Amino acid sequence: MSQLEQKLINYAKYHRDRRNIATHFAGIPLIVVALGIMLYIPVLQFNTVMLTPALVVVLLCSGYYLRLDFRLGALMSLLFALVYAAAKQLYIGWPDDKSWFYLLGVLLFVVGWVLQFIGHYFEGKKPAFVDDLIGLIIGPLFVVVEVLFMFGLMKELEQKIISVAGEYRKG
To answer: pLDDT per position in the chain (171 positions), as tens?
Structure first.
């Protein structure tokens, strides 16, 4: 079993209720976007490249995903790059007082986590990151993989996950 399969199976064990997965489809992207905003703090500029904590997180996460699986890692890197580019454009277009920019990030972060906890109420289980902090980085990958499954892609991976984590519950 590959490391990718192990990580996704472990995460999936906490996410078998379809209502929980549905809340993750909104909550996790909100959290990712929120982090892109909250961590878009310009530190240094090299020509047109702005060094921010958000850029560091995107690069580290992308490297991790690429190590797990090149194709999924490339997709995740693209999605994270889009979030980073959106945060950058929002930051550039924001008025001089950036406090509302960062407050928007905090608001999205809170809403995202509220959705997560509502989903785990339906699931009847605590979030995966409570037992293993790596769940915080696997969450976005899990959502993308679940979307791919919905489109009929990666059926072999889906069957491996279901065979160990269990069938989906309708709730």
So the answer is: 799 999 999 999 988 999 999 999 999 999 999 999 999 999 998 888 889 999 999 999 999 999 999 999 999 999 999 999 999 999 999 999 999 999 999 999 999 999 999 999 998 888 777 777 888 999 999 999 999 999 999 999 999 999 999 898 886
- Whether 171 is in a domain gets the answer no
Rounded distance between C-alpha atoms, residue 58 and residue 90, angstroms: 17
Reference 76, options 93, 91, 61; nearest CA is 61
Q: Where are the beta strands (DSSP E) in the chain?
A: 44-46, 49-51
- Nearest-angstrom CA–CA distance, 136 and 21: 15
Q: Is residue 59 within a helix (H) or strand (E), and if so which, with residue range?
A: helix 53-68
Question: Is the backbone of residue 101 left (phi > 0), alpha (psi -120 to 50) or beta?
Answer: alpha
Q: Do residues 160 and 5 lie in contact, with contact meaning Cβ atoms separated by under 8 Å? A: yes
Q: Is residue 32 part of a domain?
A: yes
Domain membership of residue 89 (yes or no) is yes
Residue 170 lies in a domain: no
Rounded to two decimals, what is the model's pTM?
0.92
